[in-house]
């Protein structure tokens, strides 16, 4: 998995002394730097945006850095096959990031300290359950997800395909795996 | 001829309307003397709105500062007089700011014109706010960070929409008379284009025959509409509303001839919407966060 220190990008792209991700223009400058880093990676690389060294993030900046980056990734405007997850979030970061994801109907995989991962943003209960099954099992087939999540197989397949289009899952040799987890990193 | 504009003894978002009522009938190039000699208190809104008023006049107004030594010293420490020297002709000597003891001024009057100003304001408030917001307003640490986010979004409205620089000031103080407890006020004022013209400049104006300052405020504040086509815009004001609602505070925005107040708490006698106010360019926002309930 590739790693981008968002705090470092902020200081390099905008100002050496800044620790907070605030304002749209700062967010835009940071996103452009991240886009350039992603563009230099191989297709299919999973990249963790690390917020550990970011003090706070406001709604406008969260929209510019996270939501717009996800839109570009989903729209293949960054090299085909790029995957983005985030790590190092505090509850303060999460508040702004979740709000902008919900607003735009986007979702994201957040890596947490204990090595686990969770989905944040606009996902319904079935999607969340299906993703969780895949994440827990590592790599799995739609029929296993259907059985464990209490869905019929077609519905499970449709859900997993939709999650894949949203870059929250990857298909590996006919099986699904959660982006950013041990099976796909 | 110079017209004397009397500043009320206590200057805040409500009483500032008396100042505007006196100014409104006068042409923009009329000579004004803003008489604050008998003013004994100004909220952050009063300071920032007075500077905005001076900015919007074609002829630099005169300013008579408060005569009470303690008041003038406080106005000086709040940085108001530092900028007043630039935008008014002061008709009295200004004392150098006296060193004060522990102060609840979280942010002195500060100009906002560029992106960097917002960064700097957030950084300064984060450093100072933690202690006061937690010890005097009994807010949780999560709310302290939300406070900085709220301030950032409020200031960004100037940079993004006003078309000219504005002002911000933040102070915590005992608001016994008005709300019966301690509170913190964020005031962000500018004399720029205002909500109505900002929305008109993009595609923010709804398709309706009815269109005025009040509807423009409602369009932006209640429906999150912005002049930009980008559907991600408007989240800053939504975030401010959410934060203020959670903390049982109040946010008021005045623009042009209207004023909208959202989440009017039980302790306040304000009305949600006021039309037909004296015209004033730009946008003036006040966010009031009261001391948390459990400590009252």
Brief characterization of the structure:
The complex is a heterodimer of chains A (185) and B (296). Chain A has 185 residues and is of the alpha/beta class. Chain A has seven helices and eight strands; from the N terminus they run βααβαβαββαβααββ.
Structure description:
- The complex is a heterodimer of chains A (185) and B (296).
- Chain A has helices spanning 6-13, 24-39, 59-74, 91-104, 125-137, 142-149, 153-165, and strands at residues 2-5, 46-50, 83-87, 107-111, 117-121, 139-140, 169-172, 175-178.
- Chain A is α/β, with parallel strands linked by helices and 185 residues long.
- Chain A folds into two domains: 1-122, Transcription Regulator spoIIAA (2-Layer Sandwich), CATH 3.30.750; 123-185, Winged helix-like DNA-binding domain superfamily/Winged helix DNA-binding domain (Arc Repressor Mutant, subunit A), CATH 1.10.10.10.
- A five-stranded mixed sheet of chain A has the order 1-2-3-4-5, with helices on both faces. A three-stranded antiparallel sheet of chain A has the order 6-8-7.
- In chain A, strand 2, helix 3 (59-74) and strand 3 form a beta-alpha-beta unit.
- In chain A, helix 2 packs parallel to helix 3, helix 3 crosses helix 4 and helix 5 packs across helix 6.
- Chain B is 38% helix and 24% strand.
- The mean pLDDT of chain B is 90.
- Chain B has helices spanning 16-23, 44-55, 69-77, 80-87, 115-135, 141-162, 176-179, 194-201, 213-221, 235-246; strands at 2-6, 10-11, 31-35, 41-42, 62-64, 89-90, 105-112, 166-175, 181-190, 250-256, 258-262, 273-274, 280-290.
- In chain B, helix 5 runs antiparallel to helix 6 (141-162).
- The longest helix of chain B is centred in the middle third of the chain and has 22 residues, at 141-162.
- Chain B has a seven-stranded antiparallel sheet, sandwiched between helices.
- At the A-B interface, helix 2, helix 3 and helix 4 of A face helix 5, helix 6 and helix 10 of B.
